[in-house]
Amino acid sequence: TTQNCAVWLFVLFTCMSLALDRNSAVHPRHLCHTRSTLTDDDIMSILAVLLCDFHTKSGLVCRCQDPPNFFSKADLAAVDRWILPKHGIYDHSVVITTEQHQVVSHTICISGSQYDRNGLIFCPVFVLDRDVDNWAYQYIIAKCARLLRTVEIESKFVSSGDMDATLVDMLAAIRHDLNTTGKCAFRLDEQNTLRLTVVNNPRTRALEPISENMVPIVTRPDLLRLCTERDLTVAFIAPYLDGRRSLEQLAHVAHIERMLVERCLQYLNNCDVIALVEEVQMADFYVVTERVSKLLGDKDLKTECVQYVKATASETAPSITTLVHMYCALRAEEPFLSLYALQDRFQAHMANIDIVRFVQYGRLRGILRPLVYHRVGTSYHEILVAKPDIAPSSDHRAPRCITEGDAAILSVPSASKKDAVSDDHDDDEE
Question: Would you state the pLDDT for residue 378?
């Protein structure tokens, strides 16, 4: 009897553990995390996600939506003429603003004799709050629609009717994940996975002014190609973004007004498509930072540095050891080396090294920082006589004089705006 009781208890605990595992199992198509229950207070930007298609008799119908019955037939009928636009607006994102919501859709049309009326028309739809910035969701809905077109051409994913349950799960996953984490990954089938990310609108960030000697360097060519499709100014100046031309030179060679080029570069900089570096002059001075040590330990950084710095006409890549030695030669101690002096010192290795790209890579990765001299007199005594108020003191902003030959060079730290105003006032009084 005791043995039978032990057997029954073992069976009971086994069944209970299997039930718990089944309830806590991750959805096989949901790659990010388990889905938790959302309340109405948790909903942020996306109020509903719909998948609509065109029926030959009924017109535009809502095939499935999440949450269920959020968008009624009357609501859909009020905007169906814009959700299903004319043929010329297919494969474009459309934003419809109503009294309560914003409706973002992207209509896809696939031609083929296997469909009724020789075509399949469908569109995913986002229903957003009226006050939400819809910029990011236009790109998300376009990516979702184009991936559905791909899987439909491959396996009739949308038109077969066998994947309705998967489509419902996809809509629920999109709405839940984008509202909570801003990212979503959903596996449609064994070969295709839908990955979506909500990005911040670069237009909402303050545009930083660009000086005339700043040179744009492309860091994301893939995003640059996307921007050229949506902006004519970007399309005009994109061929001239070679990392050599400054703002003024770009405006001249592209025959575009300087203000338009500046606004374009500001937008690309906010989108992290380009990075802005000061124009490299051979008489400039640079100082190495502690980040140069990363070149010795990171293999990916070594390969990236060698490929970037290599001269275009050279067939052989420079040695990473030579590049590290060149960076380390720009020490923060006297005598400081200009780029002319650096090039002369390593003249035997400069055949396959582009000195401009060498400096640009150091600035982009934080390996180099510029050193600026302010020449204010011919001797330190003359400086003290002319400006006795800037004599060395215990103040952390005290000037530092660097002697170079017979001339004295004074490195003055930047003063605050209040100090600058007071200095100007004193000069006026004198």
Answer: 53
> Which H helix or E strand runs over 127?
strand 119-129
Give one DSSP letter per residue of 87-107, joined into a string.
Answer: GGGTTSEEEEE-SSEEEEEE-
**Token digits of residue 196:** 């979506």
DSSP of 239-264, one letter per residue?
GG-SSS--HHHHHHHHT--HHHHHHH
Only one residue has tokens 């909500």, namely 198
CA distance 409 to 275: 31
pLDDT mean over 236-256: 91
- Catalogue the long-range contacts made by 253-261 (C-beta closer than 8 Å, 24 or more residues apart): 260/233, 261/233, 261/237
Dihedral (Cα; 14, 19, 21, 22), 10-degree rounding: 140
Question: With contact defined as beta carbons under 8 Å apart, do 310 and 318 qualify?
Answer: yes
Q: Residues near 391 by Cβ (< 8 Å), separated by ≥ 6?
A: 384
Distance CA 134, CA 37 (A): 25
Radius of gyration of the chain (CA): 32
Rounded to the nearest 5 degrees, what angle is found at the Cα of 376, between the Cα atoms of 373 and 378? 105
Average pLDDT taken over every residue of the chain = 75
d(CA 45, CA 287): 47
- Start-to-end CA span in the chain (Å): 111
Backbone angles phi, psi at 64, to 5 degrees: -160, 160
| 8-state DSSP, 206 | P
User: b or e along 190-199 (b: 16 or more beta carbons within 10 Å of the residue's beta carbon)?
Assistant: eeeebebebe
Give just the sign of the alpha carbon dihedral 41, 43, 44, 48.
negative
Residues 6+ apart with CB under 8 A from 198: 45, 136, 137, 140, 178, 182, 183
Contact 310, 354 (CB under 8 A): yes
Give backbone dihedrals phi and psi of 425, rounded to 5 degrees, phi first. -65, -40
pLDDT at 288: 92
Are the beta carbons of 237 and 246 closer than 8 angstroms? Answer: no
Q: What is the pLDDT of residues 95-131, one digit of tens each?
A: 888 888 888 888 888 888 888 778 888 889 999 888 8
- Reported confidence tier of residue 83, pLDDT bands at 50, 70, 90: confident
| 141 neighbors 180 (Cβ within 8 angstroms) | no
Show the tokens assigned to 410. Answer: 């004074």
DSSP structure string for 211-233: -TTEEEEES-HHHHHHHHHH-HH
* Contacting residues for 384 by C-beta, under 8 A, at least 6 apart: 390, 391
Q: Which helix (H) or strand (E) holds 355?
A: helix 355-364
